[in-house]
Amino acid sequence: MTDFTDEELALDPHFAEQFEKGFRPACQLYLISPPAIDETFVDQLAQAFDGGKVAAFQLRLKGIDDDAIAALAGPIQALCADREVAFIINDSIGLAKRLNADGVHLGQGDGDPREARKLLGPKVQIGVTCHDSRHLAMEAGEAGADYVAFGAFYPTTTKETTHRAEPSILGWWTTLFELPCVAIGGITPDNAAPLIAAGADFLAVSGTVWNHPEGPKAGVAAFASVLGGA
To answer: How far apart are CA 128 and CA 117, in angstroms?
Structure first.
């Protein structure tokens, strides 16, 4: 295999500007749960949904087993169905199958999208974390993922990150591929505009909504103007 220098592999930050932009639907909000919840969380989620359009909700709970997550998931999943929000399980293909979730989001160590597709069927949405890697994103697409996620774009306290992506990777992806891409990591209403302009199809947000001083409804509503009133 030929070895390339970091400079040779670097993405031209103006790559996407060389091409005419094709049509893509307006950027939408992808809401991720707080790192820990209890039985009352469904009320907070309902408030968040009252704040504006949310396309997808990911239940992401670390440090507890699938049985505990499943016990919490019922009312949350029902609310998502009622509000026409896709219900996504983080990491666990088996739990997504068990709950008949709308989708599963896989980190790089959480399983192969091909195996997920075999187990979950053709209609379930499969997302893959690709950090700041064009190579991982292309591999995910070839493996049958329904979307790829890039990030972190900004500092975040929601999870520990070792990769920092630049907005240009969103432009590169949406110029060459139809598959949707999700931008994640420290995104707020104040810093989201460059990611939307670069080509993000979805903004994955968490702490900026749940920690909003006026509550989760205001947290979601704060994104409305930057998303064009979505």
So the answer is: 12
CB 164 within 8 A of CB 183: no
Both tokens assigned to 154: 């900004």
Q: Which residue has the tokens 């001083």?
A: 213
DSSP state of 16: G
Residue type, 170: L
Preceding peptide of 152 cis, ω within 30°: yes
pLDDT tens per residue, range 70-99: 999 999 999 999 999 999 999 999 999 999
Instruction: Please report the DSSP string for 61-88 in residue order.
Output: --SS-HHHHHHHHHHHHHHHHHTT-EEE
Q: Which of the 8 DSSP states describes residue 18?
A: G
Residues 224-229: contacts with CB under 8 Å, at least 24 apart: 224/51, 224/52, 225/189, 226/189, 226/192, 226/193, 226/196, 227/26, 227/27, 227/28, 227/29, 227/52, 227/53, 227/192, 227/196, 227/203, 228/26, 228/27
Please give the radius of gyration of the chain, using alpha carbons only, rounded to the nearest integer.
Answer: 17
Give 17-60 pLDDT, tens digit per residue: 666 677 799 999 999 999 999 999 999 999 999 999 999 999 99
Encode burial over 69-98: b for 16+ CB neighbours within 10 A, e otherwise: beebbeebbebbeeeebbbbbbbbbebbbe
Q: Per residue in 172-181, pLDDT tens?
A: 999 999 999 9
Cα distance between residue 209 and residue 57, in whole Å: 12
